[in-house]
Every structure is written in structure tokens, then in C-alpha cells.
């Protein structure tokens, strides 16, 4: 556990006029500030040219970027409990390098019933300031977190299809899409924005009141989520210039979603439009070569057919 004196000291960060704090104590207080959610105190322990080096080569440099980094951790309920700090590689001058292992927890893991994971860290401290801070999760913890992140992404995406697409809760879009959302497969005539997506979905619901997407499989990796789904519906109203056919359709689709900060930032889709057109009878020819005429609305004794409608490369 962190020393109580270190916890008290984090409230204001290091005093400019005080003598340099011992390197291990600097790190204790820096991580205590993070645990307390005190972003200003966390940032204050870094030198003006201090950096955070993340796995994969990402470097967070400068106090403003470090502040954003810390705010992201705090918002996720990040907590760290460090173990004993031991000397690392020798450093020039008065700088000291230390390394240690720690137990780390955050909200995403807790939601999945995982209490904490193991992390390794190394830092260089000089003159009571952190020059570099390099946290890294153990391979086993990285795999565990990747699994947890994939599970969270799947839960989120399935909720999106159920709430927004199936139940038509367009007022919930802000909870699922980023402000800069881009739809790379918008309905014909619709903008690639969030509002265009909402308008297109509303149009679908008018043409096919029973329109539904059944999510069959979800594959998540990093910030990408691939969704294999089956679309069903009954074409009961005009859609994209095509009159109602009162036919039913069942067609497969593949979506790729890019997530950003827990929201959908981009969407791509590949729909089996050829199968859709065949089920709609768009390839059938009437006498004289004209397209087949739409069927009449079914009576009570007739078969209640119907389809999605003219989805032309949705």
C-alpha cells in the first residue's frame, strides 16, 4: 500500500522550493495522485520534457498530452498498487532508473469479474521529477485484457443493433456513434453522417415495419468489430422509388465497425444485394421484357409475404 504521507502530499503536487524528493517517493506520490483521480498532481510530478512510453512505440510527451493520458485513465477507474521498486539500468548524472511490478485494476475488468492484472513498469527520475515512465502489462495480462476488450465490444455492438436498428430508438444514437461518425455504406441519397444513418433507418422502418437484423457472429480485435448478420423484413411500403411487393426477404450482411473511445466512429457494410434483388423478383421479367409487376397486398386468407425493399447496396 502507498504511504499515508505520500497520499497527503499528492493534493498539491511537489513544491517548487522543496528539496528533491527521493526517486521511489516521487513514483509513490505520482501513482497515488493517479489513484486519487488528481490529474493535476499526477502531471506535476513530470519534468517539462517528461514522457510516457507505451507498448507498441506510442510516446506521450509534454504535460498537456500527459494530462489527457491521465484523464483517460481516471475516467476508466484505473487503480495501481505497486510492488517494491528496484534499480534498473544505470543513468548518467544524478538520474535514477527504477523498475517494479504492480497490480492494476480498472472498470472494464471489474465489469467482467476480473479484479486486477499484473503490470511491469520502469521510470527515470531526476531532480525530483519523472523524466520517463514506461508501463507495460505482462503477456498474460495483455491477452486477458484483449479478451475482455473484445467481450465489451461485442456487448456494445449487439446492444447497438438491438436498441437502434431493431427497436428504432434513434434518440439513443448519441450513445453509440461519435460526433464525427462516417458511414461508408449509406442508403442511396443519404449523407454518410449520423443524421443520414438515422434518416435512412427511419425510411427502412416505414417501408418495412417488421425489419430486423439478427446478429449471428461478432469478431472484435483492437478497434475493429466485424459483424455477420441476417436481415429479414416485409416490404409493405414504397422504398427508394420501388413500390411495395409484400414479399419477405432474408439476406446476409457483413459490417465492419471502427470504435473510438467507446463509440462507433466508422461503418462499412457488404450486403448480398444480388440475393435481395432475386427475392424481390427484380430479375423476373414480365411480357415484353418489362420488370415484373409488384404483387398485391395479401388478404387475410393469403400468405403474408414481404421483404426488406429495394436496398440497393445498403
Biggest pleated sheet: 7 strands, mixed
Our Rg estimate from Cα atoms comes to: 28 Å
User: Could you tell me the number of beta strands?
Assistant: 12
Helix fraction bin: 25-40%
Low-confidence stretches: 1-12, 285-292, 299-314
Beta-strand percentage range: 25-35%
Distance between the termini: 55 Å
Average residue pLDDT: 82
The helix/strand order is HHHEEHEEEHEEHEHEEEEH
Structural class assignment: alpha+beta
**Helix count, per DSSP?**
8
Q: What is the general shape?
A: elongated
In short:
With 314 residues, the chain is α+β, with helices and mostly antiparallel strands. The chain is 30% helix and 31% strand. The two termini are 55 Å apart.
Protein architecture, described:
With 314 residues, this protein is of the alpha+beta class. It has eight helices and twelve strands. The protein has helices spanning 4-9, 23-35, 39-44, 63-75, 107-111, 139-166, 194-207, 273-280, and strands at residues 46-53, 59-61, 79-82, 86-87, 96-105, 117-126, 129-137, 177-183, 212-221, 224-234, 248-260, 263-271. Strands 1, 2, 3, 4, 5, 6 and 7 form a seven-stranded mixed beta sheet that branches. The chain starts with a helix and ends in a 34-residue tail after the last helix. Mean pLDDT is 82; it is low at 1-12, 285-292 and 299-314.
Record the SSE blueprint.
Layout: H1 4-9, H2 23-35, H3 39-44, E1 46-53, E2 59-61, H4 63-75, E3 79-82, E4 86-87, E5 96-105, H5 107-111, E6 117-126, E7 129-137, H6 139-166, E8 177-183, H7 194-207, E9 212-221, E10 224-234, E11 248-260, E12 263-271, H8 273-280
Parallel strand pairs: 1-7, 8-12
Antiparallel strand pairs: 1-2, 3-5, 4-5, 5-6, 6-7, 9-10, 10-11, 11-12
Amino acid at each position: 500500500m502507498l504511504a499515508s504521507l505520500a497520499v497527503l502530499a499528492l493534493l498539491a503536487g511537489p513544491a517548487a522550493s522543496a528539496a528533491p524528493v527521493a526517486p521511489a517517493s516521487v513514483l509513490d506520490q505520482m501513482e497515488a495522485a493517479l489513484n486519487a483521480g488528481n490529474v493535476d498532481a499526477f502531471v506535476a510530478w513530470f519534468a517539462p520534457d517528461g514522457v510516457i512510453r507505451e507498448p507498441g512505440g506510442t510516446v506521450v510527451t509534454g504535460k498537456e498530452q500527459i494530462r489527457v493520458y491521465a484523464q483517460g485513465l481516471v475516467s476508466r477507474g484505473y487503480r495501481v498498487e505497486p510492488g517494491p521498486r528496484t534499480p534498473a539500468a544505470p543513468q548518467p548524472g544524478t538520474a535514477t532508473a527504477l523498475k517494479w511490478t504492480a497490480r492494476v485494476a480498472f472498470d472494464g475488468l471489474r465489469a467482467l469479474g476480473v479484479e486486477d492484472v499484473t503490470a511491469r513498469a520502469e521510470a527515470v527520475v531526476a531532480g525530483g521529477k519523472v523524466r520517463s515512465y514506461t508501463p507495460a502489462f505482462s503477456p498474460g495480462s495483455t491477452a486477458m485484457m484483449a479478451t475482455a476488450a473484445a467481450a465489451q465490444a461485442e456487448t456494445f455492438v449487439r446492444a447497438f443493433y438491438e436498441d437502434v436498428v431493431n427497436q428504432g430508438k434513434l434518440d439513443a444514437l448519441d450513445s453509440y456513434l461519435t460526433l464525427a461518425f462516417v458511414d461508408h455504406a449509406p442508403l442511396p441519397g443519404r449523407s454518410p453522417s449520423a443524421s443520414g444513418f438515422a434518416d435512412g433507418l427511419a425510411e427502412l422502418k416505414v417501408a418495412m415495419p417488421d425489419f430486423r437484423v439478427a446478429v449471428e457472429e461478432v469478431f472484435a480485435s483492437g478497434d475493429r468489430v466485424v459483424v455477420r448478420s441476417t436481415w429479414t423484413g416485409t416490404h409493405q411500403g414504397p422504398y427508394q422509388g420501388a413500390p411495395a411487393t409484400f414479399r419477405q426477404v432474408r439476406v446476409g450482411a457483413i459490417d465492419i465497425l471502427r470504435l473510438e473511445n467507446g463509440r462507433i466512429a466508422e461503418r462499412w457494410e457488404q450486403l448480398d444485394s444480388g440475393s435481395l434483388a432475386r427475392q424481390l423478383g427484380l430479375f423476373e421479367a414480365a411480357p415484353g421484357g418489362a420488370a415484373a409487376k409488384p404483387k398485391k397486398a395479401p388478404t387475410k386468407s393469403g400468405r403474408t409475404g414481404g421483404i426488406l425493399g429495394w436496398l440497393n447496396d445498403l
